Amino acid sequence: MSASSQQQAFDVITVPDFSGSSRAIFEARTLVFLATWMEYAGIARGYPLHLACIGDPPESVCKLAERCQARVTIHQPLELQAGHHVGNKLRGLEIQQETDHHLLLDVDIAILSDLSSAGRFSGSLAASPDDAPNVKSRQWELIYSSIGIPTPAPIKPLVYELGMPRFPRRMMGFESEDQQSKQMHPYYNGGVVFAPWAANLRHTWEASIKSVASLFDESKGTLRWIHQSDQAGLAVTFALLQKEGWKWQRLPNTFNTRWQHLYAGTPDPDSIAIMHCCWSFLNSIGRDTTVSRESLKTALHHFFFKKIPHRYQKVGVAELIRLRPDLAYKGIRRGINRAKTVHAKILRACENHLDDILGS
Questions:
Q1: d(CA 195, CA 247)
Q2: Could you report the per-residue pLDDT of 41-65, keeping only the tens digit for each?
Q3: pTM value?
Q4: How is residue 313 annotated by DSSP?
Q5: 266: Cβ–Cβ under 8 A, 6 or more apart, which residues?
Q6: What does the alpha-carbon distance between residue 162 and residue 160 come to, in Å, rounded to a whole number?
Q7: Nearest residue to 272 (alpha-carbon basis) of 40, 20, 34, 53
Q8: What is the 8-class DSSP label of residue 275?
């Protein structure tokens, strides 16, 4: 890599968890990630790629990682909350850096086009808003008062940016509290995070996860988005780092495209760089099983042709509640068609790079 390109490059990191009963699911996700990286990452294929594995990776992942020239490291679970995986992602920030910046990715991601333009965020923190305000306003008030910094200015949640309703069962409670979901306290999706190594995201994020969780007594009930998620801690981390002088920028939708974007019709499938399939991606492959070409193909089909359309049906019901049947029809039809396009791209990458890795 030339000196000039090295300055623009960044470390790309993902953290699959092979330590527990979901080993096969993470194997399938990692194989899809690597296959789509090889097929579509473009100029970024020359950037340092790191698999920071929790537990020993399976043979199939090792083989494909070698072809990608990925750096593989093995780590113990971090488990900032006893018995839960929250915090494991931070192991990815313990790798040996090779550039000045890193792009930390969840493993439930498919690469669909060149990532190299993310280099324009050099010197900044960058992430996307989460779907909706899963942490309530009164909880944020307690969090920010405890760390002694002013409450940051609100941002728009993704569903409002896209003009979508929440699922019907989530339409009560948060909307009345957060002005019909038009704004929320800063709350970011932790699946795609860009940052300078010099910002020391690793240290501040861990401390923030712990400090936020400590404010809420888990013996009185586990708060999923507080005790079992790193995203409230990420929001506090960004607030603290901005106080230190680091700039935050919003990632464009092309760098953290989720199923909601396919429903809303933006961005165009051809422009998507990172398709973030989110937590249920390939779960149908099952636990403690052997990943094969056929089982992976079946799991991909299930996710894009059954799981995602089911979500669209829920959104459609919410649109009907809001007396917008025309938007329900257009969104469901458009979302299903775009999901088919994304599925075809991922399947093509898997066929091109996994056939000799996996058995039938």
A1: 10
A2: 999 999 999 999 999 999 999 999 9
A3: 0.93
A4: H
A5: 162, 253
A6: 5
A7: 40
A8: E
